[in-house]
Amino acid sequence: MLRHVLIVLLLFTHSAWLLAAEPIRLGLNYPKTGNYKAEGLELRRGALLAVDQINSQGGLLGRPLELMSLNSAARAEKARANVERFASEGVRMVFGGANSEEAIAAGKRARELGLPFFPTLAYANEITGRDGHRYLFRESNSAWMSAKVLGQYLSWHMPNRRYYYISLDDAWGNSMEQALREATRSRDRARHGYTRIAAHGARRDDYLGALQKAAASDADTLVIVLLGQDLVQTMRLAHDLQLGRRMQIIVPNLTQSIVEQAGPLVMEHVIGTEAWTWQVPALEKSTEGQAFVERYIEAHQAYPGSTAASAYSIVRQWAAAVQRAGSLDGEAVIAALENHHYELLKGEQYWRDFDHQNVQSIYAVRVRPRSEIMQDRFKQDYFTIIHRMDGEEAAPDLDDWQQERGDDLTLQ
């Protein structure tokens, strides 16, 4: 009895001491409103799970973590202003975002302020390529990595196809289309047609017109390089036009929230890529990954998607680097991250030193039939993994990276 009382007293004393310590603040840029608000909610949930777990284990350097969240609305100028506000509030790391433009803008401002920055949902090759810098680390995969795994799967299982591309006219859309054209040998734009969708201000008629052009072409594979509500609306229109019955639809960067928003019937049989799904920890025998899935289910009565997993991993990895460095100093944390290998929610991953890209396995996935999805307890078991590629094979090598960088061959 006395031993039990002493343990409770020690835990109470430790908790009170931790609460009294000055918190270490993290800044989350996330889309609370706009086209990507569903993804934003998932980002915040994943981040909060990581913060709560670290705090329950004694915090970081003897201090609790505190998450500050600001709405970026997926706009570059707002994300940049948020970074400035975070810095004024004393944050020590910034992460988040929902598109490549805001990642590039926010990352540049974070570098100027000496803050490590980790983008999420930002797939443009430029982020760790032409626009990469010392203070930016990307946990999610690049467009080229998605293209490599898709290109290999399609060349093996669906060779000699004719493609039509509908792509967002921004950094990610252009780099994703270019990378997939290279990977599928569909570079000839006369044979493999395309329509570009304006990055801002596109309307229903723009999406419909692009789909009608695709339908009028000889293509048997339709690639839709869109995200968020742009993708949801386009997929619903494609379903109304019954394009999925005669064309294989490819969405290079799929997320669980997209299938949820568009509906599993609309998304049936669509092929795309994911860096992580909730089934991966069991497949790769990741104890920590399975524990994360269980904690997320307990908190939200839903499966975690790759977006939540990315935010969770970023917080955990930054905190682990701070612990190794014994310091919150940006340069010390950068040194602790570079070339660090680890296992967290799946098999081995590492932060590459020359470009700060996270090298990890990538999966091609297919959306399961609605009838199968509806049998799941949460009606969220959306993806069948159809192909896997190791990170070293998927990621561009040093020579490719240096070609893109030109004369600027080191991160500044």
Q: Explain this structure to me?
A:
Belongs to the leucine-binding protein family. This protein has 412 residues and is an alpha/beta fold. It contains 17 helices and 14 strands. The chain has helices at residues 2-20, 37-56, 76-88, 100-112, 143-157, 171-184, 204-216, 228-240, 256-262, 264-267, 280-283, 287-300, 306-325, 330-337, 370-373, 391-394, 398-405, and strands at residues 24-30, 65-71, 93-96, 117-119, 163-169, 194-198, 221-225, 248-253, 271-274, 341-343, 348-351, 358-359, 362-367, 383-389. A 7-stranded mixed β-sheet has the order 6-5-7-8-9-13-14, sandwiched between helices. Strands 2-1-3-4 form a 4-stranded parallel β-sheet, sandwiched between helices. A 3-stranded antiparallel β-sheet has the order 10-11-12. A hairpin with a 6-residue loop joins β11 and β12. α3 runs parallel beside α4. It is globular, with a radius of gyration of 22 Å. It starts with a helix and ends in a 7-residue tail after the last helix.
- Strand line-up in the sheet with most strands: 6-5-7-8-9-13-14
Give the strand content: 15-25%
* Spatial gap, N to C terminus: 59 Å
> Quick one: how many beta strands?
14
* Uncertain residue segments: 5-11
Decide which structural class fits the backbone. alpha/beta
Pfam families: Peripla_BP_6 (PF13458)
Family: Belongs to the leucine-binding protein family.
Protein name: ABC-type branched-chain amino acid transport system, substrate-binding protein
Keywords: Signal
